[in-house]
Amino acid sequence: KGIAFIVGIYGADGTDEDVRNMSSTFEELNFAVFTEKDPTCTQLACLVKAAATVRYPLNYKFITFYFAGHGGINDSGSPYVIPMQLKGEDGKVVRVEEEIVSAFNGTQCTCLFFFDCCLSSGTSLR
């Protein structure tokens, strides 16, 4: 049993269907499922912080974080996700490793991360 946080950036091709499918899949696996639609960078950061710091009941064995939407690779080769359409609020992006994955360090559950992001060729944000 686990808990799943599913974030969808609607408007990206197929994102709404992906979120519905992932939600139903995790519900069938008896996960508690929480979804967020079109969060800003600030809202996404709050969701990640809350998900990473809450004390989960001992019967939760997994924490799953699923993001469907826009993404990219910066000039140094690090992946990022882009909340909201194309760019986050004020053009901000959320760095996958530094701002999402690392937030879950020290969590007592096994953490699974899925990033289903399109990547526009020639697009690079700093």
Throw out a few tags for this protein:
6 strands, alpha/beta, single chain, about 130 residues, six-stranded mixed beta sheet, about 25% helix
Architecture overview:
The protein is built from 3 helices and 6 strands. Strands 1, 2, 3, 4, 5 and 6 form a 6-stranded mixed sheet that branches. The model is unreliable at 84-88 and 122-126 (pLDDT under 50). It has helices at 15-28, 41-53, 96-100, and strands at residues 2-8, 32-37, 62-73, 79-82, 94-95, 110-119. It has 126 residues and is of the alpha/beta class.
Outline:
With 126 residues, the chain is α/β, with parallel strands linked by helices. The protein is built from three helices and six strands, in the order βαβαβββαβ. The longest helix has 14 residues.
What helical percentage do the residues reach? 25-40%
Number of strands: 6
Shape: globular
Rg from C-alpha positions? 14 Å
Distance between the termini: 38 Å
Instruction: List low-confidence stretches.
Output: 84-88, 122-126
Structural class assignment? alpha/beta
Question: What's the pLDDT, averaged over the residues?
Answer: 78
How big a fraction of the residues is strand?
A: 25-35%
How are the SSEs placed, and which strands pair?
Layout (H helix, E strand, L loop, with lengths): L1 E7 L6 H14 L3 E6 L3 H13 L8 E12 L5 E4 L11 E2 H5 L9 E10 L7
Parallel strand pairs: 1-2, 1-3, 3-6
Antiparallel strand pairs: 3-4, 4-5
